[in-house]
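Shipment paperwork, digital attachment
Item: protein structure file
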Amino acid sequence: MSFEYPQDLRYLDSHEYVRLDGEIATIGISEFAVDQLGDIVFLELPEIGDAISLGDTFGTIESVKAVEELNAPITGTVVERNEILIEFPEQVADDPYGEGWFIKMRINDPSELDEAMIADEYRALVEGE
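Attachment content:
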């Protein structure tokens, strides 16, 4: 199977992604991670207004195979969360880079993303190149 790796995103080795739009970061998990998890049955996300620091666990995603922690790729404050996914977590698989996002944060310091991988680095990691 071939996965998409959108060029406008930054990735963590734990498979979270960030799309930065000004000072708002949209965070989700990669198509590869969705594939590895299998059928997603539960998603726990933080509340609006929660402050999250780089590297913090900000929620969990549960599939029929495993429960995985979600790691914050950047520091900021939650301004929006995807309520539809809390109700229907399986929809993450339909469009992980679009409608399948988890949270949006107002970020403190965009330079924190300098440590995150660009698309080509992430693809090499997951495809074992």
